[in-house]
Design goal:
InterPro entries: Homeodomain-like_sf (IPR009057), Transposase_8 (IPR002514). The protein is built from four helices and no strands. By secondary structure, the protein is mainly α.
């Protein structure tokens, strides 16, 4: 549901710019409450995809394998961080 709303907002923002192009990108972005660079990026993507702005937010994975890979990468990063802390503690306590 939220993904559909995000997609709809992006498409509406692009449409708003085309309807109010006299305001410029900065003016439209300000009126929509989004950043200039965000709207610029959506406009570029829309031009490249014939008006369609694909949505891909954080936590949205295209497959279960990608989701599992992301989880394992986070787990590995956390384990490495813990190992670094332990190594530093050993060096401090060993002196």
């Amino acid at each position: 549901m939220a993904k559909q709303q995000t997609q709809q907002f992006k498409e509406d923002a692009v449409r708003y710019y085309y309807d109010h192009s006299d305001l410029g990108v900065k003016g439209c972005a300000s009126n929509l409450g989004i950043g200039y660079s965000t709207l610029t990026k959506w406009l570029k993507i829309a031009r490249e995809n014939n008006g369609d702005v694909p949505t891909r937010g954080s936590g949205n994975y295209s497959s279960d394998i990608e989701k599992e890979n992301a989880r394992l990468r986070r787990e590995l990063r956390d384990a490495k961080d813990a190992l670094d802390v332990l190594k530093k503690a050993i060096n401090i306590l060993g002196k």
